[in-house]
Amino acid sequence: MSKKTKEPKQSLWRVLRNNFVIFGKVCKYAPDLVILAFLEEGVLQGIHNSIYAVFTLHLFNSLDLGEPFGKIAMIIGLMSLWYLVFNILDRSWHRVIKPNLHHKLNQGIHTELFRKTREIDVACYDDPEFYNDFVWAMDEASSRAIKILEDLTRMVARLMALITILGTLVAAELDTVIIIICFAVGVVNCIVNHFGNKTYYAQEKERKPLSRKQSYINRVYHLPDYAKEIRISRADDLLIREADENSEKKVKVAKKYGIRYFFIYGIFYNVLMEAVSLGITFYMFLRLLDGAMLVGVFAASTSLIWRVRWNISDFIERLAKFPEHSLFLEKYYGFLSYKPKVVSGKNEVPEFKSLELKNVSFTYDFSDKPKYQWHKADHKKPKGEGGNADALRGVDLKIEKGEKIAIVGYNGAGKTTLIKLLMRLYDPTSGEVLYNGMSAKDYDISAYRAKIGCVFQDFKIFSSTIAENVMAGDYDDVADAENVSSSLEAAGFTDKLNSLEKGTQTMLTREFDKKGTNLSGGESQKVAIARVFARPYELWIMDEPSSALDPVAEYELNQSILKYAEGKTVIFISHRLSTTRMADRIYMFDSGKLCEVGSHDELMAMNGKYAEMFNLQAEKYVCG
Prior knowledge:
Oligomer: single chain
Shape: elongated
CATH class of the largest domain: Mainly Alpha
């Protein structure tokens, strides 16, 4: 069992930098939010608290001195007018303006995260630790930025109020001992909150993986993909048991840290605050009895003293939150600073001529997990045992322009891993992939992938229109209409398309549109295949392209692929051998090794692994 990694101690500079960087992002994505927040939650709130202090003291002084009713009424009227104006502005900000600006900020930060997600290595998703931190970054980034902005603006408001209230109390000749006590309480409040923030961070660190698991279980129950499985299997019992166990763990975490909160805030802090409050009140009451202050001043000062104490405490409490913000932001910055291992080259990608693997081996080595860092000094490479089995070993093969290649083998033979290497989703552990005789690593990675159209075995359909699914992006109803229709026809989707009232504008899945349609597995696969037909790819990779089709549809699809792939290079990946007869060359894989190469007839004559696999499948179609 691995030891828990201890969070590195944060220096003052590190705390300042972490918070300053996220504040810079707020200024970048929502500058109007920053300006208006400082005006409303900073200046306006500060003026509001300041005016209250001045009005209160003037009102009680006027009552004590027996001022005319008209002057007292004017003070009350001015206070009422200010409260009316303030409440209108405050509610407009909180209920109308602020929510819209928060959405703007949230969109900007999450768009940055989405774009970064495209850069990280696919291998990162194989590391639960990385995935936990990735989810943490997604959950915390925008909300933490909003909290930081709120703390900054409220600190401005508290500072303005403190200056005004303290000035008013000094003018009223209030004993400075009381003011010193208020500041002392604020310092204690800062220390208590420091420990409270560390406790909260530790709690969240333990809670996040549990929340992610709960989210997964919830997703299984509300997604239609799992509805049939849950009803016909015993998976329901397993999921409910997992949910119960996960819930028990969350309760234990809550109890563990709840006890700490209880002693820090529930007993120590509250007892201290009440003792100070009673002490100050009693001290001021004694001064009132001694005739050192008037009743009005006593009443006003008592109210203002609590405001001083609250403003000092809130100011220091918000100041103490910045180390907490910094800790949470570490995950976010770490994710953004991740340097992928699969990096882009700079060369332009020429027209496809050949693709070659030279002595390629690949290992899914999770002992050296993908890591990211925000502070280099804190990064240490973990010690791993290694020794994982190779998914591919010493593979040599070459594909020329215009060839139709079949890559076959049983499940687990390494076929899908080969695709990931060809697409540069992974790079080989050893050996190299050559495009036109040059290392694929030397080419611009986006342009390189744009040359290759791939239908993955585990393809995905998006909750968007059929046309957008075929174009795998934005759809122009003028420029792309004919292309989409012909691509769907080539994929054998015409009959289904004609049955749909909105045609290519039909929304797929009913997740966001009750008038949408849910396609069968075979129909969905045809839409995925149409994506390859719709783009000018020079190399097609078909990973089990007919796995969800019946034999007749499979035959028709193969003929269509041959027709539309004229002059193009096609790689068929399959463990079903119905497509291999039309291949120029067949590569047979077994346990990660390339064991046989040749045409169908040549491999059948060899009577090896391919012949054995072909004959086993052929027997299923022979009538008894």
